[in-house]
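TASK: fixed-backbone design
INPUT:
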């Protein structure tokens, strides 16, 4: 009759022990990248696999040691994105990964971004399996695993942590709009788009890296779970917030980046599209950041909106008109996704857009950020003056993948 209390005491003691064990593990690895496997079954390289693709391309927090997607097992993750070989293998399942790696990675990242709120039972069991192997769980879903009693219990018993990236701050820590954004006296550039999963974040990340390499201190403000996973220091997942706080949280993130980093420029990641009827985040981003300029990302070959086959894609012209009507900012450049386009088609579209819209147009994955840097320098001369003389060669010698990339693939896999 004393079994139940003794078992509860055992679980409590085990939980306390594993909590201390995890805290020590965290302290030991502070400042180091953590090894991570990314789960992306049947979606790697597709729109719903954009989190996994983004982590393959860039992460300041994790060293990605493998992708789990049985449909592409044995292939290289970089090559499957139509890019250079990354050295990141794709595995059939968790056991395949652990046998091949001969060690257990620190983290298991759920690398899909579906519209659905809850994951299937099968994928839940895989998360339980990863925890029992001793791996921390990183999730960007709307379903918060830390609020799940069973998952939290298993995590405690196995000394692992669950981290819900999309989980908003407590209500007491949320911010309403204050108008403090008017005190930000450096250029704020929002990278908006005409649709979901069309490459906004990739463009923002690549431009941020380029500017910093040129000696311009650029800070990226995240507005989605994937860029937070990549290591963005400032920002919040806007689509998980109560609508009343969306604008204020974006404003606060930009103000914090300005006050704490003293940057030369702040880039703000966009979400969805201003014109998209299903989502509100882009409007909050535009209002909260009050950008001095907008870079507009567009997939020219896409006929209907991602995940919404009944919704026809807008044109860049209509999106520009909408952005410039509801805000005081101007679109200063167009960036493209070369999804379903070959090299010649991309070049023709760039030529047409630059002639028709009178805006510099490029695809940063294939051609780099030279045109964007030039556009920013033209718009904000102080930025051009801050580029270190010895780094001017960076843009001309930057490794472009245009010829190989666009000849080898006619698909663009966005992040």
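OUTPUT:
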């Amino acid at each position: 009759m004393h079994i139940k209390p003794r078992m509860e005491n055992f679980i409590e003691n085990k939980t306390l022990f594993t909590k201390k064990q995890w805290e020590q593990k965290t302290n030991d690895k502070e400042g180091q990248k953590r090894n991570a496997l990314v789960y992306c079954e049947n979606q790697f390289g597709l729109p719903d696999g954009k989190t996994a693709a983004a982590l393959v391309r860039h992460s300041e927090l994790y060293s990605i040691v493998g992708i789990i997607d049985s449909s592409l097992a044995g292939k290289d993750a970089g090559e499957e994105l139509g890019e250079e070989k990354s050295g990141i293998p794709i595995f059939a399942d968790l056991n395949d990964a652990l046998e091949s790696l001969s060690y257990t990675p620190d983290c298991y990242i759920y690398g899909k971004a579906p519209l659905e709120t809850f994951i299937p039972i099968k994928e839940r069991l895989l998360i339980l399996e990863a925890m029992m192997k001793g791996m921390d769980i990183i999730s960007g879903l709307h379903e918060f695993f830390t609020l799940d009693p069973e998952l939290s219990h298993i995590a405690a018993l196995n000394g692992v942590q669950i981290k819900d990236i999309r989980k908003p701050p407590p209500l007491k820590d949320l911010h309403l709009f204050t108008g403090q954004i008017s005190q930000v006296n450096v250029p704020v550039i929002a990278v908006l788009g005409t649709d979901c999963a069309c490459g906004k974040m990739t463009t923002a990340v690549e431009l941020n890296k380029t500017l910093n390499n040129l000696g311009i201190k650029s800070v990226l403000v995240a507005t989605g779970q994937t860029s937070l996973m990549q290591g963005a220091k400032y920002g919040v997942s806007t689509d998980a917030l109560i609508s009343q706080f969306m604008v204020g949280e974006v404003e606060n993130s930009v103000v914090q980046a300005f006050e704490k980093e003293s940057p030369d420029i702040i880039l703000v990641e966009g979400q969805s599209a201003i014109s998209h009827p299903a989502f509100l985040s882009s409007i909050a981003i535009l209002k909260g950041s009050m950008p001095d300029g907008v870079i507009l990302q567009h997939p020219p070959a896409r006929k209907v909106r991602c995940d919404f086959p009944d919704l026809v894609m807008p044109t860049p012209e209509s999106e520009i008109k909408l952005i410039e009507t509801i805000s005081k900012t101007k679109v200063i450049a167009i960036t493209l996704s070369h999804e379903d386009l070959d090299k010649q088609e991309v070049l023709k579209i760039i030529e047409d857009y630059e002639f028709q819209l009178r805006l510099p147009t490029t695809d940063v994955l294939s051609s780099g950020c030279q045109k964007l840097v030039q556009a920013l320098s033209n718009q904000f001369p102080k930025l051009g003056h801050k580029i270190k003389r010895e780094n001017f060669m960076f843009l001309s010698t930057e490794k472009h993948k245009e010829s190989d990339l666009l000849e080898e693939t006619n698909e663009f896999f966005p992040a």
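COMMENT: The longest strand covers residues 62-68.
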